[in-house]
Amino acid sequence: MRSQGALRKSGLNSRSESSFVLVLIGSFKLLKALLLILVGIVVLHYLHKDVGSAALHWIRVLRVDPDNEFVHRILVKIFGVTPKQLAELSVGTFLYAGLFATEGFGLLLRKRWAEYFTVITTGTLIPLEIFELARHFTASKVLVTAINVVIVWYLAARVRSRRGGPTGKAEATARVPEPVRREGLARP
Questions:
Q1: Would you give the DSSP letter of residue 62?
Q2: Same domain, 23 and 87
Q3: Of the residues 92, 109, 126, which one is the last residue of a structural domain?
Q4: Is 6 among the domain residues?
Q5: Are 25 and 118 in contact (CB under 8 A)?
Q6: Which of 6, 103, 110, 184 is the most buried (most CB within 10 A)?
Q7: What is the pLDDT along the chain (188 residues), one digit of tens a residue?
Q8: Does residue 71 lie in a domain region?
Q9: pTM
């Protein structure tokens, strides 16, 4: 069995593993924020333009068959989009991007508030994701929902373990030096 020092040197202790997971989650949140910012910029670009003709242009450039059933359904939706809907979509994407960026930067900086914030915001959005999954089932929606459920589970377990369970005693006694705890001078 390895000693604590050997574990610290090899980077296998739980602290470095949890830091890696926080960096991974934070990076995932920042990637989502970046993608939403890009979508918001594209939507703003087409706000006062003919979205239908732009879609047809890209279909020609990409050499996609416009008679394809999937492409045709997308085109029908695109032709029905109003400028008001584009503006609302743009605002929504930038708001979500701000939310994801806040979560991502907070987690990358290993801020405790970011863990709570991510659990609350991501946890409250999971029912919406499940509703959307029930309306239009796709593999990508399943993947994103599963990742978000794992993120909430991991961060909630991390926050709860730091608190020491329902009573919060572990954190209070963890601050008291070891010799004081042994002598019974620490308050519960």
A1: T
A2: yes
A3: 109
A4: no
A5: yes
A6: 103
A7: 444 444 444 444 566 777 899 999 999 999 999 999 999 998 888 887 777 777 778 788 888 777 778 877 777 777 777 888 888 988 999 999 999 999 999 999 999 999 999 999 999 999 999 999 999 899 999 999 999 999 999 999 999 988 765 544 544 444 545 555 555 555 55
A8: yes
A9: 0.69
